Amino acid sequence: GDxxxxxxxxxxxxxxxGFMNDPNGMFLDDNxxxxxxxxxxxxxxxxxxxxxxxxxxxxxxxWTNQPIALSPSNSTSFIFSGSAxxxxxxxxxxxxxxxxxxxxxxxxxxxxQQTQNLAYSLDxxxxxxxYAHNPLIAIGSPQYRDPKxxxxxxxxxxxxxxxxxxxxxxxxxxxxxxxTWSFASNFSHHGLLGTQYECPxxxxxxxxxxxxxxxxxxxxxxxxxxxxxxIGQYFPGRFNGTHFSPVDHAARIADWxxxxxxxxxxxxxxxxxxxxxxxxxxxxxxxxxxxxxxAEGWASAMSLPRVNYLRNATRTGYxxxxxPYRLEGLRGGEAVASSDDLGSNGTLFADLEGGSxxxxxxxxxxxxxxxxxSNTASVNFTIMASGSGEVIGGGxxxxxxxxxxxxxxxxxxxxxxxxxxxxxxxxVLEDAFDFQVVVDRSIIEVFGLEGEKSATLVYxxxxxxxxxxxxxxxxxxxxxxxxxxxxxxxxxP
Length: 493
Ligand code: FRU
Fold this sequence. Notes:
Layout (H helix, E strand, L loop, with lengths): L17 E11 L5 E8 L9 E7 L5 E8 L7 E9 L15 E8 L4 E8 L7 E2 L13 E9 L4 E8 L4 E7 L6 E7 L8 E10 L6 E9 L9 E9 L4 E3 L5 E2 L7 E5 L9 E7 L10 H5 L1 E2 L1 E2 L3 E8 L3 E8 L12 E3 L7 E5 L6 E9 L11 E7 L6 E7 L5 E8 L11 E5 L6 E8 L2 E6 L4 E6 L8 E7 L6 E8 L6
Parallel strand pairs: 1-20
Antiparallel strand pairs: 1-2, 2-3, 3-4, 5-6, 6-7, 7-8, 9-10, 10-11, 11-12, 13-14, 14-15, 15-16, 15-17, 18-19, 19-21, 19-22, 22-23, 24-35, 25-34, 26-31, 26-35, 27-28, 27-34, 28-29, 29-30, 31-32, 32-33
This protein binds beta-D-fructofuranose.
The site of beta-D-fructofuranose has 12 residues, from strand 1, strand 5, strand 9 and strand 13.
């Protein structure tokens, strides 16, 4: 693949060529290498002809493209999304004298039905053999897919969550050996429905400030998201090995942008650590109509890798916190521009011309007098292309209900008739808040309130975004604002 094109992300994963959608089968192997598989059409830049592409990384930023891991056996059945786990105790009996056998579960989408299937790997996930007795689960449904498997240690058994997509039902199954599966329970009609449930994840989550864990059921819906197309939602709750009980009846949206879908959590992340996830940074609304295909021969990137945990947040209760995974490691060095106090009405300007096209902006506000703020108070950023005048605007209006917003409507290079250009979310303000913005040629991600509020958006400008302005206005006396802009080193050759 050629990773030099003007739309090509420099710190995010994108496929060498062709079309990519969901992350699949992500696991950390016993040598400390992360494996990312993905829905892949190697022969075109639109969706179809699904394989599992494969890439590996030690740090989740520097990726090595690997040969395709799973290919369909004929032209009418495709390898849809799924997951992978280590089978260290050889419960499956497929591994002789090894503790690092890999079980990969995928949906085979055929002309009449979608079935759950197994492939296994003896070499840490580089090559796979399809199980001789596939399918593992076949119920005759044409809309039954995306198995995500985990080991439930207290019960000494495997658990699978899988979607009856058009019945808005996540089925939970259990298995002693990963081969034979029994129905345990259904989780139906919760939260936003859209028109299909897809790509469920069930994951044990650390709780901020506590030794306890909670469980998270994460469900992607498509189409029919509030902003159009696809979106991810999640349910914090309890899991007893067979049944998931949400803490309440709320619908919680994972990302307030439009380009964070089919998020998957890595398996085999060591216990009690923050969970790590990656999402597909696109939206079925327009994924087949992005300009990267015709211009550069590839379509779709993945989101930043994220660390995740739960926080019991002010007013909203259990909230998924997502922050970029160890992004500091990519900072070239000192900040390109920096202010240790922008004051109530200040401006910071950063010129990133000649950089990789990847950079980040870090803003921290303290000393806010929330009840005394004027209704013009704001902390905003503008990301500009000096070559074309295009802009992405964003920031936070503090007057009234505090609102974080982002607007990609000032980008010319993409005639995107599907797009709602403005996005916003509400902040529950205390006397301090923060946000981080990560920009990478055709993807922007915003993380606010120490990770409670994240947004992922793609955009396709005519010229590289290479200038940042951060501006405070109308803040109270005593408010203090630090702002730093860092260039990020590209990880692709
Ligand atoms: C989600 C999805 C999955 C399916 C895959 C096919 O984006 O529709 O439900 O397995 O994509 O590529």
